[in-house]
Write a structure and sequence with these properties.
It is a single chain. By secondary structure, the protein is α/β, with parallel strands linked by helices. The chain folds into 2 domains: 191 residues, FAD/NAD(P)-binding domain (3-Layer(bba) Sandwich), CATH 3.50.50.60; 111 residues, FAD/NAD(P)-binding domain (3-Layer(bba) Sandwich). The protein has 8 helices and 19 strands. A hairpin with a 5-residue loop joins strand 4 and strand 5. Helix 1 runs parallel beside helix 2 and helix 1 runs parallel beside helix 8.
């Protein structure tokens, strides 16, 4: 049965680190809050997450499960599902539609739906993503330190990732793939870092006994490697709800992302965004911080809006 009468102070669209963090501060602020989560965290392929103080090494799934349990102490509701639309309701709030036909209302929205890494179409990359095909040395570099690294060059910044990961291993090979010729400056930096450069397109990855053993080139050569770093061809934010609401977007070196202020406020009154939907570098610890800021800002706005209504003799909320 379609529900249209449920009204919340805040609906959080997305239940990853940013969304749960926003919901936590909102729940602790005595705000009736609903988290709607489609269950598609960006870091799901990784067995462990790192760089989060006191939670280093736990699995992403465990981290989110603990977070959901914490929210129940503050009355925050969590619902598995997908938000398919949101629109102003004409009463200083929003009507929010879910894929299962349910509809709820909210005075404020927080969109924390993350992004999708659209990976290069190289045989084996998607299958081993988050295992021994990696993208972030801060997330995984310590665990694979001193192993034989391969780096598949990205056309926009062909040398950058190889130069970065050479801090974690002295055995690094950069595969130019489709990146074209290096600049003289990049070549000099790679030489200084001790990175070997291999020309030619990458055809696929080689595995034995469920572990990466090499990189296969289109000309038939195979270069032994045990770890490969590669960036996404495209970073695609899950920003459909934000676009539907008319939120302003800005062009970045990583593509188009929603414009937010320091609290996560978008250009749409009453709508905030946090986490990877606002940019690709919001790792777990950063996403938690951004979610917290958004939750606190929303509670403050609602509190003073209600006080202004009370002074003016208008119904609150």
């Amino acid at each position: 049965m379609t529900k249209t009468d449920e009204r919340y102070d805040v609906v959080v669209v997305g239940g990853g680190a940013a969304g749960l963090s926003a919901a936590l501060i909102l729940g602790r602020s005595r705000r009736r809050t609903l988290v709607v989560d489609a269950g598609e965290p960006r870091n799901a392929p990784a067995a462990h997450m790192h760089g989060v103080l006191s939670r280093d090494g736990v699995s992403p799934a465990e981290y989110l499960e603990v977070g959901r349990r914490e929210l129940t102490a503050y009355g925050v509701e969590w619902r598995a599902g997908r938000v398919t639309g949101a629109a102003p309701d004409g009463r200083d709030g929003f009507a929010v539609s879910l894929a299962d036909g349910a509809a709820v209302r909210a005075r404020r929205l927080v969109v924390t739906t993350g992004l999708v890494d659209e990976l290069p179409g190289i045989d084996g990359v998607a299958e081993r993503w988050g295992r021994d095909v990696l993208h972030c040395p801060y997330c995984h570099g310590w665990e694979v330190r001193d192993r034989a690294f391969g780096v598949i060059a990205h056309p926009r910044m062909p040398a950058h990732q190889a130069l970065m990961v050479s801090h974690w291993s002295t055995d690094v090979t950069l595969f130019l793939h489709t990146a074209g010729e290096l600049s003289a400056h990049d070549a000099a930096l790679l030489d200084a870092a001790g990175v070997e450069v291999v020309a030619g397109e990458v055809a696929g990855l080689v595995t034995e006994d469920d572990r990466l053993t090499g990189v296969r080139l289109a000309d038939g050569r195979t270069v032994p490697r045990s770890v490969v770093f590669v960036g996404a061809d495209r970073l695609a934010p899950r920003d459909g709800v934000l676009r539907q609401l008319g939120a302003a977007l800005c062009e970045t070196p990583f593509g188009e992302f929603v414009t937010v202020d320091e609290t996560g406020r978008t250009s749409v009154p009453g709508v905030w965004a946090a986490g990877n939907v606002t940019g690709p570098q919001e790792q777990v610890v950063n996403a938690v911080s951004r979610g917290y800021r958004a939750g606190a800002a929303i509670n403050g706005e609602l509190r003073f809006a209600d006080l202004e209504d009370a002074v003016a003799g208008r119904p609150c909320g």
